[in-house]
Amino acid sequence: MLAQVLVSSVTAGAVYALIALGFVLIQKGTGVVHFGYGDQVTFGGYLVLIGQVVIGLSFWPAVFFAVLLSALLGAIIYGAFMWPLRNASLLARIIASLALGTVLREFVRAYMGPNAWPFPFLLSQTAVSVAGVLVVPANLAIVVVSFAVLGLLFLLFEKTIYGKAILAACDNQIGASIVGVRVSTVFLAIWILASVLATIAGILVAPLLTLSPDMGLIGIKGFTAAILGGFNSLLGAVLGGITLGILEGLAGTYISSALKDMISYSILIAVILVRPQGLLGGLMIRKV
Amino acid sequence: MTNALLRVENVTVRFGGIVALDKFSLDVRSGSIQALIGPNGAGKSTMLNVITGLYAIDGGTVLFERKRIDGHAPHTISRLGIARTFQNTELFGEMSAVENVMVGLDRHYSYNLAIGMAHSPGYRRSEIAARGEAQDLLALVGLADDTAIAAAALPFGKQRRLEIARALATRPKLLLLDEPAAGLRAAEVESLNLILLNLRAEQGLTILVIDHVMALVMAVSDKISVLNFGRKIAEGEPDTVRRAPEVIRAYLGEKAAHALGA
Amino acid sequence: MIPRVAICIAAVATFFVTPHVLAEYHMFQICLIAATALVVLGLVVVTGLAGQISLAQSAFVGLGGYGSAILATSWGMPLWASIPLTAFLVSLAGFVLGQLTLRISGHYLALATMAFAAIVQLGLIHSDQITGGAAGMPVPPFRIFGLTLTTGSRLYYVILPITALLFLIVWNVMQSRFGRALSAIRQSETAAEAMGLDVLRYKAMAFAASGFFGAIGGGLLASLSTYLDPAQFGITQSVYFVAVAVVGGMSSPFGAIIGSAIFILLPDLLQSFQSYLGLVFALLLLGFIVLRPNGLASVGLSRYLGVASLRTAGGWW
Questions:
Q1: For chain B, which residues make up each domain, given as ranges?
Q2: What is the DSSP letter of B150?
């Protein structure tokens, strides 16, 4: 029984991990905490839907359409909002990212209606018994993709010159540009990458949660996962996601299923207060 | 020393693996102007932040008027009579110069929230008196004509002086100045010297200055303490310290010290 | 510069004449605007003045509405008493929430207040016995001096004076040393602390104030809508209130009124596009935050009314 709970939780955890990866990517890459990212995930799923329902494409062309448009969206978000606001106050930037998310959410609510849409699973939905535990292939795909994305991003940041350029640009914009890193290009690339990642996450997650305008509220869970992992660490994002999924699953089974969400939010507040650097992050001291 | 207003005893501060202050001790005599100098990164600002309660210490004690203040919150320490300025000016940029100073005075013209809500005569009287005293303080530092200008709009030199006026508004017994002369022109340093000497002469204010600008330090200090790598390497009257070999070595390096025959 | 006395007389005259001139529908809207403005006033204090991001406002509104209604239904307390009592209790909750600012600020504070809002909403949904759960609960009618006030035209006589009084109080406080202190804290906490201000206590008080005004607004909104639905008190609504504050102008109480007026009256202009309402609000927020972050209140109006001392509150950016 415990094993079953754990296996199911890992799926939920992988969902959180995927979203957390996007958060951390944007934060690590551009220094912005994007509160509207959860809504971008939803929007990605809806783009596929729009491709199918409105334009009449079949599934995979619609996916391609969605990926293309989300790349464009990423570019627009950066060019029209993030770059102009780069020197604005922290509050302005937080509210702007919230506003972006809200715009995306309200757009799909208005354009595609407030009700949930069914979304096709990429892999089989039927549970398969593995060593006495039920595993759903479609859910497994989410876990696999999370780790795959993590692996790719890790390689990007640690092993390639581009990755190092990104980290440099984020850490010290002036210094980076002096050594020839074009900061604006780097940031643009990050936003496009993160937006595409959001769409991929949306496609994987939508069948699980059913696609509705408010699906993006899962963003908070992604946040919690990212914070658990230290917010500055890609590996932490994945570990944080899995951890959150397991904690939630255990709480849901052994304490109360209805209070599952409340427990997650409480975990968020607790982590923020007790150990804001998460499990893997380090502390920073501000010089006066 | 019985008239040490401030006594720092064997204070150690560590940031992770770095020792910013290493059993550092300092006495500041009441009514004197003292300076703390040393190369960049020596630990001077750390010392200031320790005194004002921004940093916790890992050893030693800090005594003000013979009572321990280490471990207290910054606003409590401020209320005991210690005021400071900041290395990177931390002015209230959107507020006018006079409003900046009034924030420091408010403690001495306090009226309660109910009066603040109702704007009764007590409120009016307090506000007018506070504003008056704020304007006097601004005149003291030479900003009489800039009272209504937003702090962020003032030129750098005036911002530094506003910081001092604001610190004085809290009616401190001890004034800590963090690099007040940084970025000032020679003439501005001159007027700053006069202001500090005046404050000591007329109000008996005790001042501890951190700075690199020797034109200030040499001109106003009764005693100079030199800090390097978190340790005190010299202390004494300005002329003595200026010629001390350890000091020359710390600032200019071994070779220069040799060249100067130290 | 128009003398203050003339403005007061004009205001009072307008107050009494209006119900005879406008239809019930518009009276209801005026009440909605006033109650919403009170909620947003909370944000003006905690975010505009004290600089603390808060996405908890919808939780305070919900607690205010439900608290007042429950005290009225279960304990028979009349709304004119249960609303202020609830607001006081909610302000205590706000004070506790404000203690969070000891450890966190910026992004983490935004998240923590979001989580708070989510927890409160879930609490309201799952406490079926007390709150009626997801189905919501009805609000008893507002009774005072033996009169039952259910229409906008009648609740007007209670809501407007309360709103005016609370706004005046906030305005006065902003011009006092307390407003100065909060404004200073917003601009530099380090310097404020160094000048003897107990920054944590001030921030917690600002949160308490936001809780108080949110709850009063919530109680009044509940009386107007006569029904409480927990779906209306979530993070989305917190963002809505932030939008109203941004568009109207967060650094001034006037902004709360201007913003509320726009957001309440806008749906009328978009008659046939009701389903796009949310999108329009979101676009307004986005547009203003990028192009005009100080909101509308920073444009001319305030200067015309001779309130140059708004500078004590300072701009927000």
A1: 1-81+172-262, 96-171
A2: B
Say what the ipTM of the complex is. 0.88
C106 touches chain A (CB under 8 A): yes
Taking the Cβ of residue A83 and every Cβ of chain C, the question of whether any pair is shorter than 8 Å is answered with no
Residue C121 in any domain: the answer is: yes
β-strand pairing of B223-228 with B33-37: parallel
Question: For B94, which of C178, C195, C314 is closest by C-beta distance?
Answer: C314
Write out chain A's pLDDT in tens, 288 residues.
Answer: 777 788 778 878 888 888 898 888 888 878 788 999 999 999 999 998 888 888 888 888 888 999 999 999 999 999 999 888 888 888 888 899 999 999 999 999 888 888 888 877 766 667 777 776 777 777 777 788 878 887 888 787 777 877 777 777 767 767 777 777 777 888 898 899 999 999 988 888 887 777 888 887 788 888 888 888 887 778 888 888 888 888 888 887 777 777 778 888 888 888 888 876 665 555 444 444
Interatomic CA distance for residues C162 and C173, integer angstroms: 17
- Closest-CA residue of B relative to C185 is B92
E strands, A78-155, are 128-130, 133-135
SS3 category, B214: helix
- Between CA C73 and CA C228 the distance in angstroms is 13
- Alpha-carbon distance of C65 to C72, in angstroms, equals 11
Measured between CB atoms, which of C177, C198, C315 is closest to B75? C198
Sheet holding B18-29, edge to edge: B18-29, B4-15, B59-64, B67-68
Q: CB–CB of C313/C264 below 8 Å?
A: no
Contact C242 A98 (CB under 8 A): yes
User: Is residue C256 in some structural domain?
Assistant: no
The backbone torsions φ and ψ at residue A223, rounded to the nearest 5 degrees and listed phi first, read: -60, -50
- The beta-carbon neighbor of C285 closest among A102, A266, A288 is A102
Which of A28, A102, A256, A263 to mutate to probe the C interface, most C CBs <10 Å? Answer: A102
CA-nearest residue to B53 within chain C is C194
Question: How many domains are there within chain C?
Answer: 1
Q: What angle do CA A264, A267, A268 make, to 5 degrees?
A: 90
- Residue range(s) defining the domain that contains residue C205: 4-242
Helix/strand/coil for B29: strand
Helix, strand, coil content of chain A in percent (nearest 5): 75, 5, 25
Helix (H, G, I), strand (E, B) or coil at C218: helix
CA distances from C296 to A151, B105, C90, C301 (A): 48, 33, 30, 9
Q: Which long-range contacts (CB under 8 A, 24 or more apart) does A127-136 make?
A: A132/A3, A133/A3, A133/A4, A133/A7, A134/A4, A134/A7, A135/A7, A136/A11
Pick the CATH number of B1-81+172-262 from 1.10.260.40, 3.40.50.300, 3.40.50.620, 3.40.1080.10: 3.40.50.300
